[in-house]
Design goal:
Blueprint: E1 2-3, H1 4-15, E2 29-32, E3 37-38, E4 41-46, H2 49-57, E5 62-67, H3 79-91, E6 94-97, H4 100-104, H5 110-117, E7 124-129, E8 132-143, H6 144-155, E9 160-163, E10 168-174, H7 183-188, E11 193-196, H8 203-210, E12 213-216, H9 219-222, H10 225-238, E13 242-244
Parallel strand pairs: 4-5, 4-13, 5-6, 10-11, 11-12
Antiparallel strand pairs: 1-3, 2-6, 7-8, 8-10, 9-12
Helix pairs in contact: 2-3
């Protein structure tokens, strides 16, 4: 067992979310308090009802998520939001959420870990939000088919390709989640490819017109890496078990 306060201090020291720019309702950090002691840590991409119920059933005392409870902002504690909070409180489970600081982290971040899962070593920063660097770029030197295969293996699923760039991939940007907004930045940096999770319809034409290969591996699939790594770090630091609650959305 570990003191919840000690675990929270560890997380804050590792992730340093204070002052990191993020969406207005991300509310990085402890979102719902829990028991004084933590004997089991869980990790999930989303603070969905399904994830919270599963965590409660597994005896998780602290659940670390990438997407927290409050994306829609201030609202009544009714419906799904009430059921989520009720599950946490009745189950004696704390909830810790970390969004963009986790995407950006050089060691346990989604972007860096996805690159390394593909056998690529991040070489420089790419993709930013309000001045904070989030993603990375890496040198490849391989055909599109090879990159596609490596990415499929890394995320364990299908990947879509918009073949706007050259057949031979030279430099690729990695920005997990909804990173297609960085297509223009990729082009301005001389990158010929971008790996992300999802894209809006217009991104197809943007990629084709900018000469960028756009690899879409799924928002969920590209953002499983960070929460797993954080939970593993907590488990190692405090000698407590951890597990990943795999609840893919297919998106």
């Amino acid at each position: 067992m570990a003191k919840l306060e000690s675990v929270l201090q560890f997380l804050e020291g590792l992730l340093r979310p204070d002052g990191f720019p993020d969406y207005p309702h991300s509310l990085n950090g402890l979102q719902v308090a829990g028991p004084e002691e933590v004997g089991r840590v869980g990790a999930a991409v989303d603070a969905s009802e399904e994830a919270l119920r599963k965590g409660r059933g597994l005896g998780v005392d602290l659940l670390v998520v990438h997407h927290g409870l409050f994306w829609d902002g201030l609202g009544p504690l009714t419906g799904p939001r009430f059921r989520k909070v009720e599950t946490l409180v009745r189950g004696g489970m704390a909830l810790y959420s970390v969004h963009l600081p986790l995407d950006a982290h050089p060691e346990v971040g989604n972007c860096a870990l996805l690159a390394r899962a593909m056998g690529l070593e991040p070489q420089g920063r790419f993709g930013s939000y309000k001045g904070a660097e989030l993603g990375w770029w890496a040198q490849v030197g391989e055909g599109r088919g090879g990159v596609l295969g490596r990415l499929r293996e890394a995320v364990g699923g299908e990947v879509r390709l918009v073949p706007g760039g050259p057949e031979e991939v030279g430099r690729v940007g990695i920005l997990t989640g909804a990173g297609a907004t960085a297509l223009g930045e990729a082009a301005s940096m001389g990158l010929d490819s971008l790996i992300t999770g999802e894209a809006p319809h217009h991104a197809y034409h943007e990629a084709m017109e900018l000469g960028i290969n756009l690899f879409l591996a799924g928002h969920y699939a590209t953002e499983t890496f960070g929460v797993k790594a954080v939970a593993e770090r907590v488990g190692e630091a405090f000698g407590i078990p951890w597990e990943f609650l795999h609840l893919p959305t297919g998106l």
